[in-house]
Write a structure and sequence with these properties.
Blueprint lengths: L2 E6 L5 H15 L3 E6 L11 E9 L2 E2 L1 H9 L1 H4 L4 E7 L1 H4 L2 H15 L6 E6 L1 E2 L6 H9 L5 E2 L3 H15 L2
Parallel strand pairs: 1-2, 1-3, 3-5, 5-6
Antiparallel strand pairs: 3-4, 7-8
The structure holds flavin mononucleotide (FMN).
Length: 166
């Protein structure tokens, strides 16, 4: 049994729920999994592996992810790491948008070398957005709704222990 940290950044809650789902899947596989926001992780002591996730806003991964990696860089180089990015680019399946999201994930996790990386479709709920966010997402014709694919999220989580060698 391994002790796994799933750490996430989230502005509107959808990434937080994805992180929780990954944690539940790893617990169901017999591991100890803690799901903690990046800003509240004090130390990685005792963890055998780390999963890091966050959403994409305005073409970039939220900065809390990169800050977390910088803060814990030395500890993170000693354990297997996996990363995921959440965005609406995964909804349209537009190859350029997906490539951009993957690049954003890489940039946030650098210089780590994750054993697994993926992009998950997220959620856009106009009721949770500011006036400006609603204006901008309408302007770029963002798809509206909850596009999270729980089966795909669960399947990715199930493959993690094998990829992490834990
Ligand atoms: C203002 C704004 C900008 C966004 N920009 C992007 C983007 O550049 N690329 C993308 O794929 N998704 C984008 N999204 C979609 C978010 O990534 C998606 O809503 C995600 O599920 C939000 O995660 P959270 O609920 O954890 O904050 C944007 C959403 C908003 C509201």
């Amino acid at each position: 049994m391994a002790h796994i940290l799933i750490t996430y950044a989230s502005k509107k809650g959808s990434t937080a729920e994805i992180a929780q789902a990954i944690g539940k899947e790893l617990q169901a596989a017999g591991h100890a999994a803690d799901v903690v926001e990046t800003g509240t992780v004090a130390s990685l002591a005792g963890y055998n592996a780390v999963v890091i996730g966050g959403p994409m806003y305005m073409g970039r991964m939220v900065s809390d992810v990169g800050k977390f990696v910088k803060r814990h860089r030395d500890e993170l180089t000693k354990v297997p790491v996996a990363g995921f990015i959440v965005g609406l680019a995964a909804v349209s399946k537009d190859p350029a948008g997906i490539a951009w999201a993957e690049k954003a994930l890489h940039a946030s996790l650098a210089p780590l070398k994750p054993v697994a990386e993926t992009i998950f479709a997220g959620r856009l709920d106009p009721a949770k957005l500011s006036w400006f966010q609603n204006w901008i997402t309408k302007k770029v014709k963002s798809p509206v709704g909850d596009f999270r694919d729980w089966a795909a999220i669960g399947a990715w989580a199930q493959e993690l222990p094998g990829k992490m060698g834990i």
